[in-house]
Structure prediction request, 501 residues.
Amino acid sequence: MKILLVYPRYPDTFWSFKHALKLIWKKASFPPLGLLTVAAMLPGDWEKKLVDLNVRPLTDEQIRWADYVFISAMVVQKNSVNDVVARCRRMGTRVVAGGPLLTTEHESFTGIDHFVLGEAENILPALISDLINGCARRIYSSCERPDMNGTPVPLWSLINMEDYTTMNLQYSRGCPFDCEFCDIVFLNGHKPRTKSKSQILDELDALYNGGWRGPVFIVDDNFIGNKKKLKQEILPAIIGWMEEKKYPFSFTTEASINLSDDNELMGMMVKAGFVRVFIGIESPNEESLAECNKVQNKNRDLVAAVKRMQNRGLEVMGGFIIGFDNDSPSIFKAQINFIQKSGIVTAMVGLLNAPRGTRLYQRLKNEKRLVETFSGDNTDLSLNFIPVMDKDTLINGYMQVLNTIYSPKQYYDRVKAFLKEYRPPKRKLVSNLKAYQVFGGINVLWTLGFKEKGRRQYWRFLLSNLLNNPRSLPLSIELAVYGHHFRKITQAYQNPAQISK
Ligand code: B12
Ligand code: SF4
Prediction:
């Protein structure tokens, strides 16, 4: 059997990092881990190829080669899914699809032959045997969430790691919290399920033996969902592995704010090579936190919590949401002030939207406030519900937040505020200096220092770092590159014709 795994295109948004990637000649940030994991579950004697449309185009010849095209997608990739499916139908190649988009709204995809709804581990064996016997059904699903001990190491040989800035690895699924707007609880459940220590070491070995050196994103819903296992088994194992291999990777992950309460855990994570955490901060407005049931963020000094993590050596990336029922127009200023004060350089600010499967979707449906389908991108100025605040005020205020926090002055001020608090461990990461890093560095200097607006702020920022904090220079340059991307995307939002969907 010949299987072509296809990852559809996602639009250029804050999360695509397209403008940053261009500067360093990389094609995409992360490989499609879901498809690579599914590929590893397919029989060893089936032929497999993978095309990530964010890296290279899909040819008719590739579609014709395949007996089945396997697609995985998030809601934001909907348009691209439709294009791929239409091409497969024209060429008579059957399509199997799974992932968050199809799990939450498969009914709207009439051209897809077989759906795998939910996690593949329990479901795929039945589909495989039905495909072999030529009697595959339309829908495969399971009420039980799989044990992650059965999840194989992703089939890394299907991609060229050099196309990406970062590799990824999943340790756990599920989150113990229950935020009203989040579909993780629906997709992956409340109870954190984890891989074993030996699975994690196998995954690290696979990346290392595949030649990877550099950033690794641990794509968990909440990495600290099971703290006991982390402290007793997983982090000690990762620390041992990283020390032995002389720190070939730097880790980023997603966690809840209560990480900042646990000094021991933060210390162990930093020792294991974690450099960044993405935290859902959402809002400085207590009423809005209560409204969305973000209990872990309530009644605490959020700025102090962020600074504690920065002091321990973790850069905090933050997710912020505007448009809660309890947000009044004063929220715009409050968000800007919070973001600037906290030194969260990478602040991902989105408009509230209600994805299917969430409690928010259900509440708004009951209140008859749902208006259209969710585009999947909470930064494209669309809303799929009627907000309490006047819609134009909300959208203009949101744009004002983006314009302010990503303007060169505010952005570089934030990097400085962060570096003041940041205390990384003194350790050298193994890095084989690659051609793209050298030429990318020159390109960055040319673009930010000579070509683009904000040149004066860039040079001032660079010189002040060189004089006051030379060790942090590589990180400052990296953050300046992200800033360039955020500014470009914000500019594109002023002129929606520039946004490629
Ligand atoms: C990494 C990641 C990204 C990467 C994606 C790139 C990439 N190549 O992976 C980046 C950072 C670019 C990204 C961006 C965004 N993301 Co994202 N992301 C993730 C994250 C953290 C991990 C994905 C992953 O690798 N999972 C591990 C694999 C093993 O799991 P999986 O993909 O679900 O696959 C399993 C099953 O679904 C199934 N399966 C999956 N595909 C297929 C296909 C077939 C054929 C079969 C049989 C089975 C199958 O089997 C697999 C094994 O069980 C998830 C959260 C999560 N826990 O999954 C969010 C998540 C996928 N992202 C999400 C969102 C909303 C976004 C953004 C829209 C955020 C935003 N606010 O703008 C942006 C959009 C990008 C853009 N440019 O506009 C949502 C999607 C919700 C939805 N219903 O679509 C998720 C679920 C998180 C959340 N709840 O908020 N994201
Ligand atoms: S803490 Fe994060 S992953 Fe967990 S329910 Fe809330 S938003 Fe979702």
Q: What stands out?
A: The CA atoms of residues 213 and 433 lie 10 Å apart. The first helix runs from residue 18 to 23. DSSP finds 19 helices and 14 strands in the chain.
